[in-house]
């Protein structure tokens, strides 16, 4: 690559292409769970494994991928991992039963592990190369891109399901993987392996108290976020009779508002303030779920999803910026992987909770039980942010 004095903007497109592979698989699936269950004759408690399997694989793989990326360089991990995403897409497209589909989701989880740690490692390497340790703008682009894909996920998933069946939600991984692979091959630098002391793949030596607290935040916030997205969309389809496409459009404001909030607040230094507001927003959304029922008007459903977009936009960017600043620069890839790991732990707990509250039937009673659990979780998230004052020292711009 040609030397540049500032951040190499040519890296942004492959960074984004790799980092969005995981969230696109999350949001598209949210509207495909019910059709998949109908196709295979499986209840919600069984299709929940499609969520859990990806997040278990990703939770295990993210810190390992991050550690290898810190040691070997982003390119060496990014390219084979992206190829695995394409293979998983083919397998899922032709899955004859739920078990094979779960295997495909596991492979998707492993394949998407490298994208986000690679992006954070390249940002840190560019900061070291240029001497500019304030990549707030690039971090904002990364967060907005991830959320933009999340915006497109539910309606795109709905369209794919309505016009091509649920299998197209797996097939779309093939062109996405090909594009990400080509961009990574073209633009990712051919870095040499770093000379580092021997450490285990699961290396926790770089952890510090503020970073651990940030990981706790990730568990709590992702638990609420994923429980809402997957629980609410299933309720819209099963209890309210919405099609997959209609359910995707109803939850569209969650991600649309999130993108707008991230864009407006991306360069703000007030990470603690953002997280407190985000926790309060999640608490309000979960409380509003208790007011929903089979006769709730459309405007009320949309009001819930619009309000949910505020914490969505504030939390993801704030957590990302916090990890970038709190992590040891030499292990930022592994630290970024652990952020995703703890986030996915929240998603795994979410899948278990959804299976418990809905069981074999998705109904309003289950939605209200879910809401009560999420109110308690949101209160815990709010408490952590109010009590912890370590974020006051962070500057993001």
UniProtKB/TrEMBL annotation:
<feature type="transmembrane region" description="Helical">
    <location>
        <begin position="102"/>
        <end position="123"/>
    </location>
</feature>
<dbReference type="Pfam" id="PF07690">
    <property type="entry name" value="MFS_1"/>
</dbReference>
<dbReference type="GO" id="GO:0005886">
    <property type="term" value="C:plasma membrane"/>
</dbReference>
<keyword id="KW-1133">Transmembrane helix</keyword>
<feature type="transmembrane region" description="Helical">
    <location>
        <begin position="298"/>
        <end position="319"/>
    </location>
</feature>
<keyword id="KW-0812">Transmembrane</keyword>
<dbReference type="InterPro" id="IPR036259">
    <property type="entry name" value="MFS_trans_sf"/>
</dbReference>
<feature type="domain" description="Major facilitator superfamily (MFS) profile">
    <location>
        <begin position="11"/>
        <end position="392"/>
    </location>
</feature>
<feature type="transmembrane region" description="Helical">
    <location>
        <begin position="77"/>
        <end position="96"/>
    </location>
</feature>
<feature type="transmembrane region" description="Helical">
    <location>
        <begin position="370"/>
        <end position="387"/>
    </location>
</feature>
<keyword id="KW-0813">Transport</keyword>
<feature type="transmembrane region" description="Helical">
    <location>
        <begin position="339"/>
        <end position="358"/>
    </location>
</feature>
<keyword id="KW-0472">Membrane</keyword>
<feature type="transmembrane region" description="Helical">
    <location>
        <begin position="12"/>
        <end position="34"/>
    </location>
</feature>
<dbReference type="InterPro" id="IPR011701">
    <property type="entry name" value="MFS"/>
</dbReference>
<protein>
    <submittedName>
        <fullName>Predicted arabinose efflux permease, MFS family</fullName>
    </submittedName>
</protein>
<feature type="transmembrane region" description="Helical">
    <location>
        <begin position="135"/>
        <end position="156"/>
    </location>
</feature>
<feature type="transmembrane region" description="Helical">
    <location>
        <begin position="46"/>
        <end position="65"/>
    </location>
</feature>
<feature type="transmembrane region" description="Helical">
    <location>
        <begin position="168"/>
        <end position="188"/>
    </location>
</feature>
<dbReference type="GO" id="GO:0022857">
    <property type="term" value="F:transmembrane transporter activity"/>
</dbReference>
<feature type="transmembrane region" description="Helical">
    <location>
        <begin position="209"/>
        <end position="232"/>
    </location>
</feature>
<feature type="transmembrane region" description="Helical">
    <location>
        <begin position="275"/>
        <end position="292"/>
    </location>
</feature>
<dbReference type="InterPro" id="IPR020846">
    <property type="entry name" value="MFS_dom"/>
</dbReference>
<feature type="transmembrane region" description="Helical">
    <location>
        <begin position="244"/>
        <end position="263"/>
    </location>
</feature>
């Amino acid at each position: 690559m040609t030397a540049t004095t500032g951040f190499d903007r040519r890296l942004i497109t492959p960074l984004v292409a790799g980092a969005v592979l995981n969230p696109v698989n999350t949001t598209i699936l949210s509207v495909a769970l019910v059709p998949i269950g109908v196709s295979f004759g499986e209840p919600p408690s069984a299709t929940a494994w499609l969520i859990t399997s990806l997040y278990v694989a990703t939770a295990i793989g993210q810190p390992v991928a991050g550690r290898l990326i810190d040691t070997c360089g982003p390119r060496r991990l990014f390219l084979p991992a992206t190829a695995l995403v394409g293979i998983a897409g083919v397998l899922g497209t032709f899955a004859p039963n739920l078990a094979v589909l779960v295997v495909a989701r596991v492979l998707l989880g492993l394949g998407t592990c490298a994208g986000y740690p690679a992006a954070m490692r390249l940002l840190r390497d560019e900061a070291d190369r240029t001497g500019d340790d304030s990549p707030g703008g690039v971090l904002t682009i990364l967060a907005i891109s991830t959320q933009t894909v999340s915006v497109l996920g539910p309606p795109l998933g709905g369209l794919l399901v309505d016009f091509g069946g649920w299998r197209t939600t797996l097939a779309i991984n093939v062109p996405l993987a090909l594009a990400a692979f080509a961009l990574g091959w073209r633009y990712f630098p051919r870095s040499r392996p770093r000379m580092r002391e021997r450490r285990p793949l699961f290396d926790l030596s770089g952890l510090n108290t503020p970073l651990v607290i940030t990981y706790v935040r990730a568990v709590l916030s992702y638990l609420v976020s994923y429980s809402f997205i997957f629980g609410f969309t299933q309720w819209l389809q099963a209890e309210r009779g919405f099609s997959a496409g209609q359910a995707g459009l109803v939850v569209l404001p969650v991600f649309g508002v999130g993108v707008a909030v991230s864009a407006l607040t991306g360069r703000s230094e007030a990470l603690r303030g953002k997280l407190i507001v985000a926790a309060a927003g999640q608490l309000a959304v979960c409380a509003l779920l208790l007011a929903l029922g089979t006769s709730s008007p459309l405007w009320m459903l949309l009001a819930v999803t619009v309000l949910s977009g505020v914490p969505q936009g504030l939390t993801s960017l704030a957590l990302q910026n916090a990890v970038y600043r709190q992590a040891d620069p030499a292990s930022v890839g592994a630290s970024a992987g652990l952020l995703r790991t703890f986030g996915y732990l929240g998603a795994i707990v979410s899948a278990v909770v959804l299976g418990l509250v809905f069981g074999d039937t998705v109904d309003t009673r289950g939605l209200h039980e879910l809401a009560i659990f999420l109110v308690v979780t949101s209160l815990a998230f709010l408490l952590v942010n109010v009590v912890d004052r370590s974020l006051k020292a962070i500057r993001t711009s």
